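Quick one, T. Sequence first:
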Amino acid sequence: MNDKNKIAVISRNDCSPPIKPAGWWISACIVGKSDSLKGKKLGQIIDSHDVVVRVNFPPILGYEEDVGTKTNHVVLHAWVFRHLMKHQIEFVREWLSRMDAHGGEKKVCVASTSGFWEEDGNSYLAGRNWSLADKKQTLEQLKLECSAHGVTVEKHYFSEAVNSINKLCHFFVGRPKVHGLFTGTQTVMDYIGKFKNLSMVGMGNSETHEKHMSDDAAIPTVDVGYYFADDPEVKQKTRKPISRNKYFEYDVFCLEQCVKRGHVKRLDD
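Structure tokens:
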């Protein structure tokens, strides 16, 4: 065998396929809060996925037929994490006590930018007055609450793609503290890299958000439009979107592109 053939053989032997993340081939579904879920009776379809992901402790009790009962992962935005742990701890305990993974893993992920756990404050994510020591203490408290129900806690960092899009939101809106993408949208984009068979439901549906317009008719809002919007008891327990969360067109665009490119399937069209 000449040197040229040797090089060819070595190259072929060394070219192994990229390593896929754990769970790449199993199915996952990310469940949002849109009122597009109402009356669709997708609960059983949602629960049929190997992994069901929900965002910011949404209501389930009383809505099982439409949203299912299974929860494996809960993704908590850092701001919501702080708010709930400081002001609605009983709500958190109640939610964790009902968290049903149908025999699978149960995990709460606190989502943030990469520098969040290394510095005080950190822009809109949690307010400038949240010290690093207090963050760590609050995280330990969440771990304690979760451990009582067999739930693990991990830090979840938004991907570079998500961080870049958030910076673009800030640039186009012209306000450095604008909210950026919603946690659900960020979760979809991050989970695309973890699961090949990924679905979403109750998220970024144009028909839902076109019903509820802000003062600027070109900007859809999500201040209303939840599947539980008619339940006054749930409203009292659930943090409403803050007033600056009205630049939802960026979320709609990103989610539509994810669907169009075949990265994720939408179950509630």
